[in-house]
């Protein structure tokens, strides 16, 4: 029989305590990749970059941004869901188009709940409609009157087919019994460029248009928040224009399915602290982005509920990506 001395037993005990620490390195121990599904320079890109930079300092590792636009803002999240390990080192922006788009496909490519680990709810967008300063329209009612008299003649840009702003414009056309021509782009900045160049009549998107309205080269016809935007006190809301609509499209951060709850907790806490940091508050104020913070449990519950709403909207408007 082998005899274990007191010193030997102590050595084994210490080794047993040390083994898990060696098997489970501290998280994070390398850079974290944050996939933003829009071109650089827009409001969400600016907010998420700021949050990532602040969170990276607390985490002790940089948060590296990768812009991956396409497919109405869903290419990036889809890639993360399908190709990334659930180790906490690849994250993406989760927005409402990611919930909606599978219901627009004959064969859905992802499950918006089951294929992701949802971490935190953050903020939303200031959406609105803006035109060139020298446009024939002075007001929203003038635009509607022209559209009614000229079906299909007016064009508007959004950041993609099946995005929240696209659905809002489809709803408005349905309510007004008018026909507009939709011109989708990969992001709001591209739509603003097209409007300024006269390639489309108006941009209906998040607030990439705001600096141009302030500079006097564009004019805002409406904002889609519950109250008038502080920067544009003379611009009416959709509710003031007669529509029972409020469109802010709240978004958050998610990762691939199967992430460790402990890692999720670390990421939630770092992102929450960054969201409430003065610099990120300043960025959100610059774009009039409303605070829509939800913790991990509440954010997942919100998304589960919202998926059913999006499914019903796609069916009601008969939206399809399959022609």
From TrEMBL:
Coiled coil: none annotated. Keywords: Signal. CDD domains: PBP2_Bug_TTT (cd07012). It comes from the Bacteria. Pfam families: TctC. Residues 1-23 form the signal peptide. Belongs to the UPF0065 (bug) family. This is Tripartite tricarboxylate transporter substrate binding protein.
């Amino acid at each position: 029989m082998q005899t274990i001395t007191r010193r030997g037993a102590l050595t084994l005990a210490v080794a047993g305590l040390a083994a898990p620490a060696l098997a489970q390195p501290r998280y994070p121990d390398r850079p974290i990749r944050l996939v933003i599904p829009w071109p650089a320079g827009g409001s969400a890109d600016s907010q998420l970059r700021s949050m990532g930079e602040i969170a990276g300092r607390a985490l002790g590792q940089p948060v590296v941004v990768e812009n991956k636009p396409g497919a109405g803002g869903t290419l990036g999240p889809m890639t993360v869901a399908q190709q990334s390990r659930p180790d906490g080192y690849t994250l993406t922006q989760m927005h409402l188009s990611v919930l909606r788009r599978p219901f627009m496909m004959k064969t859905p490519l992802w499950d918006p709940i089951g294929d992701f680990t949802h971490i935190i709810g953050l903020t939303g967008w200031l959406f609105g409609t803006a035109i060139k300063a020298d446009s024939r329209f002075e007001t929203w009612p003038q635009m509607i009157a022209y559209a009614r008299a000229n079906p299909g003649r007016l064009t508007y840009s959004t950041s993609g087919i099946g995005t929240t702003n696209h659905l809002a414009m489809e709803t408005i056309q349905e309510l007004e019994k008018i026909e507009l021509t939709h011109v989708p782009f990969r992001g709001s900045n591209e739509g603003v460029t097209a409007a300024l160049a006269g390639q489309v009549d108006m941009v209906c998107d998040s607030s990439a248009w705001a600096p141009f309205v302030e500079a006097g080269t564009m004019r805002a016809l409406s904002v889609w928040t519950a109250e008038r935007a502080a920067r544009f006190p003379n611009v009416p809301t959709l509710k003031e224009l007669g529509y029972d609509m409020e469109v802010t499209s709240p978004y958050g951060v998610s990762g691939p399915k199967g992430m460790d709850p402990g890692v999720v907790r670390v990421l939630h806490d770092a992102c929450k602290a960054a969201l409430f940091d003065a610099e990120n508050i300043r960025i959100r104020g610059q774009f009039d982005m409303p605070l829509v913070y939800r913790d991990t449990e509440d954010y997942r519950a919100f998304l589960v509920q919202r998926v059913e709403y999006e499914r019903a909207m796609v069916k009601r408007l008969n939206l399809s990506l399959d022609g």
